[in-house]
Amino acid sequence: MKDFQGKIDAYTERITNQYSKLEAQLSALSSESTYMTSLLSSMSSSSSSSDSKS
User: pTM score, two decimals?
Assistant: First the structure.
């Protein structure tokens, strides 16, 4: 039974590590997508302003 508990602990630890890695990737991805969105909106606004000039 003790061996079984040890296996469960190791498994839980592995899942926790994977989850924290995933969380870090997700936060990096969300900040990147925010950056891309702002970049796209600034590009579209600059192109629309150049359209109105012509």
Answer: 0.52
